[in-house]
Fold this sequence. Notes:
- Helix content is 61%, strand content 0%.
- The chain is an all-alpha fold.
Amino acid sequence: MRPDDQAIRDFLVAAVGDRPEPWPDHWDHPGALEAVGSAAIFHGVANLLAGPAIDGWPESLADRIRDQARAQAMWELRHHQLLCALLPALTDHGVPALLLKGSAIPYDL
């Protein structure tokens, strides 16, 4: 299995949506656990999965996803702090800033 397998993407879509599927028994091997974990991280959905969506998943994978979700939350908190300092500093120095995408947009709004 590879992280870009359609079956993994479909499984993750279902898990973050309103129709989660039970963990497939035939995926209980290290290659599948690695592929699903890597896909969740690559697609940025670990934080969406870190709750009840992963109940019944293998514990090592659930732990990896929870760890990634915590890391993303910490990164986001620091990102927010830096932007809150950077944007006024740019304004104070007469440097116009344009936020184009990402989590910076809600901070500016």
